[in-house]
Amino acid sequence: MKRDVKAIVKEMTLEEKAGMCSGKDFWHLKGVERLGIPEVMVSDGPHGLRKQAEEADHLGLNESIKAVCFPTACATACSFDRDLLQEMGERLGEECQAEDVSVILGPAVNIKRSPLCGRNFEYFSEDPYLASQMAAAHIKGVQSKNVGTSIKHFAANNQEHRRMSCSSEIDERTFREIYLGAFETAIKEAKPDTVMCSYNKINGEFASENHRLLTEILRDEWGFEGYVMSDWGAVNERVKGLKAGLDLEMPGSGGYTDKEIVEAVKNGTMDESVLDTAVERILNVVFHYVDNRQEGTFDREEDHKLAAKIAAESMVLLKNEGILPLKPEGKKIAFIGKFAEQPRFQGGGSSHINSFKITSALDAVKEVTEVTYAQGYDIKEDKTDEKLHKEAVRAAKEADVAVIFAGLPDAFESEGYDRTHMRMPQCQNTLISDITKVQKNVVVVLHNGSPVEMPWADDIQGILEAYLCGEAVGQAEVDLLFGKANPCGKLAETVPYKLSDNPSYLYFPGDGKTVEYKEGVFVGYRYYDTKEMLVRYPFGYGLSYTTFAYSDMQISAEEIKDTDTLKVSLKVKNTGNVAGKEIVQLYVADKTGAASRPVKELKNFVKVELQPQEEKTVEMELDKRSFAWYCTELQDWYAATGEYEILAAASSQDVRLRKTVRVVSSQEIPLHVHMNTTISELMENPKTNSVIQELASSLMEHMGGSQDGEEGTAAAEAITPEMSMKMMENAPLRAMRSFMGMNGEELEALIKKLQEAASM
């Protein structure tokens, strides 16, 4: 049935309307029984249902229902698989329907600016395009079951240190291209029911009170139609926030801020229509869920199997010197490390799932072969237990292969605080190092939500990055280690050699009051690749048990308008002897020189499954945004006229094929001529070039560039023609007064003439 929400709002009292704009408690919205408005529940996500009891807290000190923990975003992003994320979203939507949850909070798409952010395990990537594509697929999946999502944390929330008060100081272009970029496509294409605003300030203004962010950009530009909710406790000034576009405060404030809203309407400091609009947005989402209630199934065993499948598709094989897959026949294999028995598979904080079942590698390997096991280390503190250590080294020495399960304990990374270094516990590093001295066949399986330094990487034969891969992590690990599944994940972030290599190193996490994003658009691989810096493992990198060849790259045109779509195709062949999946990444390199840009940027990708020796043609598209950068003068996306390289790659540092296309822009960046406009700017602009050329040679003469003195004279050596040319090009128009004797009126007339030419 179609509800007349506007009519319902008209029947509500002022107090009822104000009440709808804050939670009843931690997880429920208020209802109005007399008008048929029910109380509905929201629940933490994003990689599992964390439905808590009535007496609940946000961070999970109280128990939540037994549920299924799917792999976290740090892992699923490595799948580069839109269909897989949508399937996971559909399953989460079904679980929500079964448990009567109207909105699941997530996905979280904040950019991984630094490896130290304590919440990176919940975030997809350092790349906004990949993050937005994964988020869009997740949202579409959940909302196909008529359950809402809440894309978060909007925006520039890239650290935990003083996250509720610190101001992210960020320039407009960087904000648009990197930090808003992760949200934009997901919001436009997948249309999440709600958006969750972040705690932090952005350039001095709280996100929860930022009209430009919550209304001008989110609604007016991007067309968002749902409601905006606060992160839990993110509200500073409630009335100001409501005016800015913050519809729902979570959790409730015990009626305190509701009274502020009522008072603001009564004393005329806020128009009641602002409140009415917020209530309409909230009710539209509430009734969409209520009027589309489904039975929903929550088959935990089936969902556990799906979690294992997703985990196997997401883990990344970082190193393999012929040691993997393991052959159990006639081999003595040792599993070493606490995480083999008790895996770390999720992060701490508001997303922590009360998993109904956990499959460890030790559990799963029983179906394959017998292994010996040694704990090796404790996870309670970073301290070598000599007894455990010696037992593990001995077990490794006596085996044919040692598989070490290592990584970061819960205490090393969690919501609420950031890491201070990139190191694993020293007791684990020491153990790995000591084992390599007695055993040459060593594989390390990593459990971590963010990159770690690997001082032992050159001394071992295999590394499997499992990230935090959900409750079925052990099943997926064993399937990959023994070749039942073929690794097909690729890194959604760069793994640097050391923390100080990271572009945000000098600025993260700021002084507690502000944090400056001085690296600009050069985040992650955009920085490393542009700087030609060596990294441990590049963005987009991952190995397989087979090999792939790329060939025959084709583009639909050699020249396009910026309003056109370019079609790109290439052939991919599985050149090995086992089936596998390859992730083909499409990067664009701007060769126009119109702006300072990264050497390449990811603009599309496709995952293709191939049988041994099978070849398929894959196709991708590039639109204007694939070539464009955000021009603050235009306040719009701008693709300059000129050449762009299209790069088909297996990682950001493994380009296989390339083609060049010329893009013709339909836009012009307006030239505003003034006293300090340089000669070179005027010469580069075709409309002003002819006007300034008349004066350029004369100006160069006055700067000493046309000397008739003999070669080798002091004057000729002091001022060379090359020097004069550069001095002339870099000179502002006001130099005409000093070097050419032009008076003020003549200069003003020249500026007017140039501006008229530029505006033609």
Walk me through the structure.
With 760 residues, the protein is α/β, with parallel strands linked by helices. The protein folds into 4 domains: 5-69 and 80-290, TIM Barrel; 300-530, Glycoside hydrolase family 3 C-terminal domain (Rossmann fold); 548-664, Immunoglobulin-like, CATH 2.60.40.10; 679-758, no CATH class. The protein is built from 25 helices and 25 strands. The strands form 6 sheets. The chain has a 6-stranded mixed beta sheet. The chain is globular. The two termini are 56 Å apart. Belongs to the glycosyl hydrolase 3 family. One of its GO terms (molecular function) is hydrolase activity.
CATH superfamily placement of the largest domain: Glycoside hydrolase, family 3, N-terminal domain
What would you call the shape?
globular
Going across the biggest sheet, name each strand in turn: 9-14-13-12-10-11
**Through-space gap between termini:** 56 Å
Give the class-level CATH name of the largest domain.
Alpha Beta
Domain Fibronectin type III-like: 582-652
Protein name: Glycosyl hydrolase
GO molecular function: hydrolase activity
Keywords: Hydrolase
Task: Name the features.
760 residues, alpha/beta, TIM Barrel, Rossmann fold, Immunoglobulin-like, six-stranded mixed beta sheet, five-stranded parallel beta sheet, 25 helices, 25 strands, 32% helix, 18% strand
